[in-house]
Design brief:
Elements: H1 3-10, E1 14-15, E2 20-24, E3 27-31, E4 34-35, E5 52-54, H2 58-68, E6 73-83, E7 86-95, H3 99-124
Antiparallel strand pairs: 1-4, 2-3, 3-5, 6-7
């Protein structure tokens, strides 16, 4: 990590939405993690959505590799936190949604949106 990334993380300017971890050449890379630019860094700033290498022990990498080998499993970053002066990422092994699960979630989001819209219309009267 670059110094401007750490300063931005300490300010809480990190988004883990749509990010995941990928195992490539016995290394784990954090993909699509959005760490916003540090405002005071000027020209020495970092690229917000670049791939970042995570430092893990070889045994931890092997364990993640074995568990994600099954169909549909992937590594998802759950939390970014600081321990002493190190920035750490909590990874979870998750299974993707099936098609019928997605339909249920879309129906719920659509009904919630309609309820919210109707409440707004009712309050304007």
């Amino acid at each position: 990590m670059v110094g401007s990334e750490v300063k931005s993380l300490r300010e809480g300017r990190c988004s883990l939405a749509e990010s995941y971890a990928k195992i490539k050449n016995d290394e784990i890379w954090l993909i699509n993690c959005d760490i916003q630019e540090y405002l005071e860094a000027n020209r020495l700033n970092h690229e917000p959505k670049r791939a970042r290498k995570l430092l893990l022990h070889r045994s931890e990498i092997r364990r993640c590799e074995i568990r994600t080998a099954a169909k549909g499993f992937t590594l998802i970053p759950l939390k970014v936190y600081f321990r002493k002066h190190y920035a750490k990422v909590l990874l979870g092994i998750c299974q993707g949604k099936h098609e019928h699960d997605k339909r249920q979630a879309l129906k719920k989001a659509d009904s919630d949106r309609r309820i919210k819209l109707n409440m707004m219309r009712y309050q304007q009267r």
